[in-house]
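Hey team,

Filing this mostly as a record. A colleague (T.K.) asked me to run one chain through the structure pipeline before their review meeting, and I want the input and output archived in the tracker in case anyone asks later how it was produced. No errors, nothing strange. Just documentation.

Input sequence:
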Amino acid sequence: RTLSRRARGAWVAGLFFSVQEVEVLPQEPHDIPMPFVVTEHGWRKTG
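Output structure:
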């Protein structure tokens, strides 16, 4: 709910440890896309 009310133009990033990374993550209708991810190794664009 919080992410759906974010300010227009606000950046959204997923934060996790690299051992948690998976190639494909199932999506639910309420999910919000994460255009960036951040791990202990740095950040990168998704997709």
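Quick notes for T.K.: The first strand starts at residue 13 and ends at 15. The mean pLDDT is 87.
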